[in-house]
Amino acid sequence: MTIKLIASIAIAASVAFASAPAMAGNDIWIDQYGFGNTAGGGQVGNNNLIGIFQDGVFNDVVTQQFGDGNTAAVGQEGFNNEAETHQNGDYNSAGVGQFGSNHDAILTQDGNGNVAAGVQVGNDCNANVAQNGAGNTAAFVQVCP
User: What is the dihedral of CA 141, 33, 35, 30, to 10 degrees?
Assistant: First the structure.
């Protein structure tokens, strides 16, 4: 009796697993060169993309995506740069490019279909972009001393 029960549970579980709908995948790519660079984050949802490129020393990136169809891209060169992207919603796009040293950028998107861009070139630039709602667009370019 016990063997039949265990076998029935195992068969039911395998049928349920096999008939579960296929989930669309999320993608992450990270390229790091230099020393002491860190990258982290997470994705919850479907068809999200995170791309990170770092070349330098002690650069940090954190990206978080909750929703579907979000894209975040961060590229950093130099020393001691920090970037964060937080996306909560669907079909948001966020990008940061920092090329000097000691930059900080935080991009936060709560809603759907928002676009936040970036670029900080020299040294010691700080950017904080927060988007709430739908269809917002923000672009910033800074050349700090």
Answer: 80
Closest CA to 67 of 50, 48, 84, 54: 48
Are 48 and 24 in contact, with CB atoms under 8 Å apart? no
Q: Write out pLDDT tens, residues 49-58.
A: 999 999 999 9
Whole-angstrom CA distances from 89 to 17, 46, 61 are 28, 11, 20
Strand partners, 52: 30, 74
Q: Mind listing the pLDDT tens digit for each residue in 104-116?
A: 999 999 999 999 9
Contact 124, 143 (CB under 8 A): no
Supply the pTM of this predicted model: 0.82
The SS3 assignment for 17 reads helix
Give domain limits for the chain: 25-138
Question: In this structure, are residues 48 and 68 in contact, taking their beta carbons and an 8 Å threshold?
Answer: yes
**DSSP sequence for 20-84:** SPPPPPPEEEEEEEEES-EEEEEEESSS-EEEEEEEEES-EEEEEEESSS-EEEEEEEEES-EEE
Return the number of other C-beta atoms located less than 10 Å from residue 20's C-beta.
8
